[in-house]
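Recall the central idea of this unit: under ordinary conditions, the amino acid sequence of a chain determines the structure it adopts. In this exercise we apply that idea directly, starting from the sequence alone.
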Amino acid sequence: MIVNSVPNSIDNSFGNFTSERTQNVTIAKMDENVALVKELMRSIAVSRTNIQKALQKPEGDDNWLVNSLTKFGLLGEFSKSTEEIEAEKICKILEDAGGNFARMFDLQDELALFFNQKDANVEFVADHFDTPIGPRLTERGRAQVLSGKYRLPVVSWCDPDFEEPIRSDEIAFVVPTLLRLSLVTDDSPILTKTLDLPGFLGHIAKFALCHYNPIAAEWTTPRVKLRMIASYSVSFWLMVTILLTILTGSCMSVLKYYTIFAITLFVANFILFRYRL
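Accordingly, the structure predicted from this sequence is:
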């Protein structure tokens, strides 16, 4: 009994190893098939888009009467040439083929993404998988990126005041001084209390004193955003305001118009931010 038990254990171990190896190979093959199907669906979407672009006629090619009757559905198929009808049939065949692939491999979302692309030359997202530190390319994804038609969505964010490097649209030697002054006001008790204002005023204060981090879906600590003064555009308008004040001699009048312009621009940016949020 003892002698016979050893070969049985070895056979069982070998059988388990073989089963696991077969399972891994099957999973790898399945992943490869899914990647190939995605490539086929992308090619189908690109072909369909190119055909639809070729079918589009510049305005004015047809008689205005024909355009009006077609618009109201009175001509329909009679206004189309044989080539246009055949091209539309091909588009329908491509759509059906893509739908069949999507249903077989449960890729309806990817198919909708491909078909909703407005430009056939747009960059598609390369094959990748998500990790705790962000997306990571597969071997196939690297080859896709090297082809130039694919991209990897790289999402990152840093504090525009304290973490971003000096930008090309900033006066470089002014930035360090402005940053030191902003650091003095960072997370000060007075600014923090301002964020607690009720209703609309609190939202305005938060937008004026903080930056929104879309990755973490949170706001930074409040500070006086002095770094924006280093921008060439802001510095230019400040210099124009000072110059007009010196030339006209009416400091209050120029300051009033500058303040109205700055408040209008701030409110427009705030509305746009809230709309996108």
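The CA atoms of residues 124 and 150 lie 5 Å apart.
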